[in-house]
Amino acid sequence: MADYIGAIDQGTTSSRFMIFNRAGEIVSSAQEEHEQIYPKPGWVEHDVDEIWRRTESVIARAMQASKLKPADLAAIGITNQRETTVVWNKITGKPVYNAIVWQDTRVADDVTEFSRHGGQDRFRAKTGLPLACYFSALKIRWILQNVPHAREQAEVGEILSGTIDSFLIWRLTGAANGGLHLTDVTNASRTQLMDLATLEWDANILNDFQIPEPMLPKIVSSSEYFGNATLSSIEGVAIAGVLGDQQAALVGQACFKPGEAKNTYGTGCFMLMNTGTKPVLSKCGLLTTVAYRLGEEPARYALEGSIAITGALVQWLRDNLGLIQSSAEVERLASTVEDNGGVYFVPAFSGLYAPYWKDNARGVIAGLTRYANKGHIARAALEATAFQVREVVEAMREDSGVKADVLRVDGGMVINQLLMQFQSDILSIPVVRPKVTETTALGAAYAAGLAVGFFSGTEELVANWAVDHRWEPQMNAATRETLYRGWKKAVTRSFDWVE
């Protein structure tokens, strides 16, 4: 009997393959970055063929490092950067255009045009999402309108479209030789094309966006047997779980009860709260999304606060300004000063996401004086993440009526002690990091393991969860509110920058 479960974690900046045991512990892992392509200001693209090569490579490396054979894996789950859109030829397997990444803002004018008829929330009642550059529908539409012959190919069924999970499943299960064209309910809920109630593509919305339904994948559960891998390093292993990255982290954090929430600190920052079997429509700028669906059970829903730029801001300090040589150095630089010196950094590089949804906002650094130095800039960059999270926490409390008494955290930034302490301080609640912080990959592994009986049920997954570190608030209330007022003022300075 197989003793391990695998997970492909295809993220915004890198692809990983991780192998876990029954206790949810990491047995083996390999990771490779891929290029970020910026053809024009506001445009962000990925080379999908490169992503596939990286995926093949990390699977082979992780299997070799652990000396495992395909028969040692019970199943494989997939988790992926959401909303990022791929359109490819189903005969050649070649993309007709680079993947358009979730951060891309090229469709801002389309958002404005669609909003003229019914407002920014014209599709929210059905999809849980406002009109924004973030989601997949307008990205697909852009490719069909701007890539020569793409629309004609779509009309006659020659090309396929999907989020990254769909492309990977298709490639893993045979590509042009019988590859499966599927997506799960969580990824489908991020396209702005799926009805949250029926969990099916909505014909009227497809018509509005002029997207032919045959090019879209079949929508399935997050946890069920899909098919077997044909890739040599994992040949014959069942592909049995798919979750968008943030929903995967919710499952990896074992947030199976309504009211339980997690926050993932990665390229962006994403907080999800489980709201149970009925979707809760937000009045405070949050998204309503599918949290997960396990087999034939009813779908569970979540409220989500999406922040575009958090870890990416640290990368920007490294790559664009050269303030640091590695991302890990930002904490040391920020610790050279006692506070932010009155400096606030609003990283609206791709506009502002929750709770504002302003595509025309742009990044600003406010409160500069001659006293400010690079330590203050670094500290303001870290604090920007925590301030944005507080805005989401407050919106979530307003929408749900539930006050979080603790925040479960995961992702690459949670090793930053200064940031996590400030996060606890500015929220005035404890922040808790689990022993396994790679909860995105773990959630995908859990979904696959449940589908094939590797795990007995969600109770076993809850039992696996354990605390690694806990931060308690230490800041006095007056300081907390003064800092937050300064942040709120700085945010307004980023509004309406693009005319």
Characterization of this structure:
The protein is built from 16 helices and 23 strands. The longest helix has 27 residues, at 374-400. It is an alpha+beta fold and 499 residues long. Helix 12 (374-400) crosses helix 13 (417-427). The protein is globular.
**Assembly state:** single chain
**What is the 3D form?**
globular
In what order do the strands lie side by side in the largest sheet? 17-18-16-15-21-22-23
Mean pLDDT: 93
Largest sheet: 7 strands, mixed
- Portion of residues in beta strands equals 15-25%
The class by helix and strand makeup works out as alpha+beta
Overall helicity? 25-40%
In angstroms, what separates the terminal alpha carbons?
A: 61 Å
| DSSP summary, beta strand count | 23
Q: Tell me the number of helical segments per DSSP (H or I, 4 or more residues long).
A: 16
Rounded Rg: 22 Å
Poorly predicted segments: none
Helices and strands, with pairings:
Elements: E1 4-10, E2 14-20, E3 26-33, E4 45-46, H1 48-65, E5 73-80, E6 85-89, E7 99-100, H2 108-115, H3 124-127, H4 136-146, H5 150-155, E8 159-163, H6 164-172, E9 182-184, H7 185-188, E10 194-195, E11 200-201, H8 203-209, E12 218-220, E13 223-228, E14 238-244, H9 245-252, E15 261-265, E16 269-276, E17 287-292, E18 300-307, H10 311-321, H11 329-334, E19 344-346, E20 364-366, H12 374-400, E21 407-410, H13 417-427, E22 431-434, H14 439-451, H15 458-464, E23 467-471, H16 477-492
Parallel strand pairs: 1-5, 5-14, 9-12, 15-21, 21-22
Antiparallel strand pairs: 1-2, 2-3, 4-7, 6-8, 10-11, 13-14, 15-16, 16-18, 17-18, 19-20, 22-23
Helix pairs in contact: 9-14, 10-12, 12-13
